[in-house]
Write a structure and sequence with these properties.
Blueprint lengths: L2 H31 L7 E7 L6 H16 L4 E6 L10 H6 L5 E5 L22 H15 L7 E8 L3 E5 L6 H4 L3 E3 L3 H8 L3 E3 L3 H10 L4 E5 L2 H4 L8 E4 L8 E7 H6 L2 H35 L3 E4 L2 H24 L4 H15 L3
Parallel strand pairs: 1-2, 1-3, 6-7, 6-8, 9-11
Antiparallel strand pairs: 3-10, 4-10, 5-8, 5-9
Helix pairs in contact: 2-10, 4-10, 4-12, 6-11
């Protein structure tokens, strides 16, 4: 081999080696450029209902639907039964970031939500679906300052309250000095009827009834099955003529909400709009089951005569005036809020 041939051979081998290295580099490029999986946005959800309750299950379904529609970009861990924050502390828990989302009752912190207390007035709500729709519409329309420290996702509310007791209550006379579990404005209803209200959350009520700490509870009939309270009462008085509700909030920490991408906010809003009716329908179904549960236990269901029902309505009427005055004194549109509520409920009768 001549020196010249050797030089060409060396250059050829060098070129081949360069191509080989370049080829290997191209083969590894996709691996080098592969991105790490995107970590989902993790949210915690505090729910005061026990996990077996239909409303806790409906909240769980909401969580899974948000995860599904965001393609797994959001992951929600639920904490039912007040395991993360107790019912009265749930709202502040959301404000302070103990949980990202929370569900509880406005009524558990009387005075904290002076305008929205009007939602719970004894206005004759016909059922949970209507109450849930109206409550959500009212909060979104008025957007009161009292809930400005959170992002309100939606509201749901139970069907008309009834009186469940350890002994028969057939008239206002039987209500005199009766110790009745009640919260928020329902406590004022008990007082107006002549009873003695005792404030406590639903998780505490079973034992209180069982031990006689309270003699009755003012509640939707679903509670008697959902919270097993039907086991520790003897009769139910149908007081739906003064049907009040208890509005329940689903709220998110404001900072957490603001940090979410716009498309995820849009998806969550869409799911929330759908779940107003799902919670409302769940309340209606639970009321039907609660009624059946009471009958299976053999408890007496006591209807009020027309004359007696009128007495009850007259007895609670001053509560409406007191609400308007209290709200107005705070510079809040209590009169407009109440009128709006009454018109929405009255309109249901024409549908």
């Amino acid at each position: 081999m001549t020196k010249r041939h050797g030089m060409f051979l060396g250059l050829g081998l060098l070129a081949a080696g360069t191509l080989l290295v370049a080829g290997c580099g191209k083969a590894k490029a996709p691996e080098a450029q592969a991105q790490e999986p995107v970590k989902p946005i993790e949210l915690s959800y505090s729910i005061f209902f026990p996990p077996s309750h239909i409303q806790a299950k409906t909240a769980e379904e909401w969580s899974r639907e948000v995860e599904k529609r965001t393609g797994g970009r959001v992951k929600i861990t639920t904490y039912p039964g007040g395991s993360l924050t107790k019912a009265p502390q749930c709202y502040d828990g959301v404000v302070n970031g103990i949980s990202d989302i929370g569900m509880s009752c406005f009524a558990y912190t009387l005075g904290r939500f002076p305008l929205l207390e009007g939602l719970d007035l004894p206005l004759g709500y016909p059922d949970g679906l209507a109450a849930s729709r109206i409550a959500t519409e009212m909060v979104r329309k008025y957007a009161p300052q009292e809930v400005a420290d959170v992002k309100v996702l939606y509201i749901h509310a139970h069907g008309p309250g009834i009186l469940a007791s350890r002994k028969p209550v057939r008239s206002l006379d039987d209500m005199r000095a009766l110790k009745v579990r009640a919260t928020g404005l329902s406590a004022m209803i008990v007082e107006a009827l002549g009873g003695t209200p005792v404030a406590m959350s639903q998780p505490e009520t079973y034992e209180a009834l069982q031990k006689g700490v309270v003699e009755a509870t003012l509640c939707p009939i679903e509670t008697l099955k959902g919270w097993k309270q039907g086991e520790v009462i003897k009769s139910v008085t149908d007081s739906s003529g003064i049907g009040y509700t208890t509005a329940m909030f689903v709220v998110m920490n404001k900072g957490k909400w603001d940090s979410l991408p716009a498309d995820i906010q849009k998806i969550i809003t869409q799911v929330c709009d759908e779940w107003v009716d799902k919670h409302g329908e769940a309340w209606n179904e639970a009321d039907r089951e609660g009624d059946a549960f009471v009958k299976e236990l053999g408890h007496e269901i006591i209807p009020l005569s027309a004359e007696e029902a009128t007495r009850w309505k007259v007895a609670v009427a001053p509560i409406l005036n007191d609400y308007v005055k209290a709200a107005t004194d705070k510079g809040l549109p209590g009169g407009d809020f109440l009128k709006d509520l009454q018109e929405r409920i009255a309109a249901l009768d024409t549908l």
